[in-house]
Amino acid sequence: MRVLALIEHDRGQLAEVALQAIGLAQHLGATEVDALVCGSVDDAVVAALGNYGATRVWLATHESFTDYDPESWGDTLAQLATRIAPDAVVAVADERGGEVLAHAAAILDLPLAANVLSATPSDGAWPVTRVRWGGSLVENASLDAPTKLISGAAHVFSATATGGTAPIETFTPELSPSAGRTRVTDRITLASGITLTTAAVVVSGGRGVGSPEGFARLEELAELVQGAVGCSRVVTNNGWRPHSDQVGQTGKRIAPELYIACGISGAIQHWVGMMAAKRVLAINTDAGAPMVTKADYAVIGDLHAVLPAISAEIRRRKG
Fold first, then answer.
1. Which of 8, 65, 100, 119 is the most exposed, having the fewest neighbouring CB atoms within 10 Å of its CB?
2. Which residues, 6+ apart, have CB-to-CB distance to 312 below 8 Å?
């Protein structure tokens, strides 16, 4: 089976989720994985794609590819799909991948299964399971189309290294001047260093923190473990923390190694934003809170007593 995968990059550097598209292709059982890159990347990127399972890398070149451009990328993806006729076209269902694949689906006049958790190739329609309604519903459906267009839910599929190499093919799409009407033209750095989306450990607070000053204990722990501080929606609604710190359906979606939820009840809207965390530690006075019942580890107690004890023990072990 042949699968065409959109590879996301930012000015030549692989995006954090880039290899997850190849992971989705591997999940589908692809024997050929065509990786499409729109714009210039260095040899290290091509080598990484081959190492993680791409059997061919298509480097699309065009004067329009000065920066991220969803319409041009989508048109390019559609044209390459028409040329090589894969069994499926896949991307990651993040802001960029979902947008580009939606453009390609419109151009190809094909249905798109978005936010997919699993898919089973078959001779006819493919059974798929996908996330709906911001993560509050999991739907079993079927995708019936000559070419299956699928965006995989972020942080669900990981690529397995194969140690292979991938030959390079060049592709020059035919793009109209209007295709590049939406593009990134400038950037403003809002945060640098460790951020919510890059931190291995996130210490997050909810209503149980009690006040803006209460977050000092969370910040202390986050600094000790080189992590970041997050919060729930009620915290931002109360004005205790900025919206940029919010984790959840209407905030950021993250996938840290450890998520420490302090005084957070665990409503589904918040769970959507952190459900990709590898491990969850809940600190709460309510043993029946949804966050506690779903967590890998839980401490039932007052976070204002528990957090200082954790910080003190970390400092002791660090000497």
1. 65
2. none
